[in-house]
Amino acid sequence: MSGAAPQGGQVFDLAVGESIRFGVPGRATRRIALVGLREEPDRIRGVVRRPTAIVEVDGERAELVAGHYHLPTVVNGVKLACSVTRSIARALLVYQDIHALDRDARLRCWAPDAPLFGPCPLVYPVRQAWFASMTQLGNERTYVDAGELTLNDPARRHIYYHYGVDLGGYDKAVPVVAAVAGRVVRRAEEWAPDEPPDEKPRDDVVNVRDAAGWRYRYSHLDMIADNIRVGAEVRAGDPIGVLGKKGSSGGWSHLHFGIRGPQPSGRDGEIEAYPFIVEAYLHEHPGALLACARPHRVAGVGEGVELDAGLSLCDGGRITGYQWCFHDGSAAAGPVVRRTYDREGMYSERVTVTDDRGRSEVDFCVVQILPPDADPARTPPTLHLTYYPTQDLRPGQPIAFKARAFIRGPFAANKGGEEHWDFGDGATARTCSNDEFDERWHAYAAAGRYIVTVRRTGLNGVSATAQLRVDVGGG
């Protein structure tokens, strides 16, 4: 029923109706009970979009969303997070036992003022700005998988929930560094003698095991650094390689960063990494304001869609405003808004978050509106947009941008067309990324924040839009 992680708090697997006692140093022991689950599938795909554990801590009730960009919350003197629930874990058994969950939900617990990872936080594993591109996190239904590509074949429509942290970026450019010190136990197709191969050979993966026995995985690397040799010791911040799109990346360029370690079941399973990398980024950028309008939303034409920027956070300050700017030119205020869409497509909805120190940050909610009755002739394309470098930009500095359209659907009715670029300063460009990322370079003459928008429309008239923000400083 329970067990202790050597770092990162204490972890418990509970069935509904079970409880445990959790000792908080200097405070009374708390009774934590799992009293229920909420795992309703959506109508359009049968996907659990918001897996939720309902808990009580000495009678105080709270709802903990599992993954999906949610951070730990304090409930009656205990900091709590839920990493996975039974429906998510069972769905992944089609592939392998990712989570090693034998009960209904996994809870991780800390003292209210305790650091999440330990006395020394992780190092943020990619050298780029926060949310510089698309992301996918734990328990989020992936953008593209076999279930989306086989719309008319229910027998093959397995639901694949993501695990680990995917951080999108510009391939062949973004440095990837070690999040912790440890020993290299895998480099591409070579494993350490005490590290049994856990998958088919691939040339894009590095695994590092730390002193506590946790294993850190870096996948889809375009290049692995020369210092990475099986058996070698690496320090936190040492080079691992360069971000890429090799292996089972789905064709979009990103780092897959995952952590595995001992679970209460006695088996190794996935450890939710997002809280640890948030802590890592804030350690390196104290006082940062981090806007978050994620995860992506999926709905059908005419269905209500809730856009939520309430997971944004302000280190050392207070968020004072949320301003939404929608694809049709309309606007709204507040952390949560609802909209409906009367046409299929991939939309990008922008939110600007402000704090009590006069600062602002921007994020984008990707909204995928799918055709009625899974009509493949109306399947929208998707887009991935990246740029590099993303930090410390100066006026006149050349910046590289890449975009790629992903054409889905058995009839390929969304093929054709080209990407139309708006760099946010009056400059435009066109690309045609049929099978690969297409690149454009641009420099901004003046300091400021620029919103880059790329749009592509397929032969079926259905469009995809992607956006990113570029902050150019003075001097």
Describe the fold and architecture:
It is a single chain. The protein is mostly beta strands. The chain has four domains: 2-110, Tick-borne Encephalitis virus Glycoprotein, domain 1; 135-282, Glucose Permease (Domain IIA) (Distorted Sandwich), CATH 2.70.70.10; 287-370, Immunoglobulin-like (Sandwich); 371-475, Immunoglobulins (Immunoglobulin-like), CATH 2.60.40. It is 5% helix and 41% strand. It has three helices and 37 strands. The strands form eight sheets. Strands 10, 11, 13, 14, 15, 16, 18, 20 and 21 form a nine-stranded antiparallel β-sheet that branches. Strands 23, 26, 27, 29, 30, 33, 34, 36 and 37 form a nine-stranded mixed β-sheet that branches. A five-stranded antiparallel β-sheet has the order 1-2-9-8-7. β7 (73-75) and β8 (78-85) form a beta hairpin. The longest helix has 11 residues, at 274-284.
Number of helices in the DSSP assignment: 3
Large-scale geometry: globular
Q: Return the domain count.
A: 4
Rg over CA atoms, rounded to whole Å, is 22 Å
The low-confidence runs, each spanning 5 or more residues with pLDDT under 50, are 1-6, 144-156
Tell me how many strands there are. 37
Distance between the termini: 58 Å
| Overall CATH class of the largest domain | Mainly Beta
Largest sheet: 9 strands, antiparallel
